[in-house]
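pinned: reference chain
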Amino acid sequence: MGVERAAIIGPSEGGSLAAYFAATQPHRCEALVLYGAFAHFASWIRSEEALQRLLHYVDTSWGSGASLPMFAPSMVGNAAFQEWWGRYERLGATPAAAMALMRLNSEIDITGILPRIRVPTLVIHRTGDACVDIEGGGSLPPAYRTHVWSNSLALIISPGPATTLMRFFRSLKNF
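pinned: its structure tokens
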């Protein structure tokens, strides 16, 4: 593709991989953008009991959209959005694959490599984030710029108004 350096965007658990890339391949990374990300899974799921509840949801209800209160609390009660959310889950992974992903996510801890990140970094968090609170995201690399949104929708891209997506693009442009 001919791209020598790129800005890397890492949402949620993808932020850990993006941060790892920025730390270990600085010659290939122009900038780092993290959205609702965490460096250590324990900052997201704070107890074994909470992890077991999440795994139980994946095992019994994956694809139903019942996780909406966690990921998009402002959309609870919107039947069309819940239907879309359930489809989003089903298209993203089978229940078995989602279970395997959650177990792998529970092992994420990149706190040791964070001091090695030297590229400009933008960290975006939402005050209404029921998944990754601002304190959990605070274990991320020192950011050149941090944006905190008062928004309770976890997804950048979702059906309906493009407000969150446009806000994300404005944050990138201003960075």
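why pinned: The two ends are 25 Å apart (CA to CA). Residues 65 and 83 are 6 Å apart (CA to CA).
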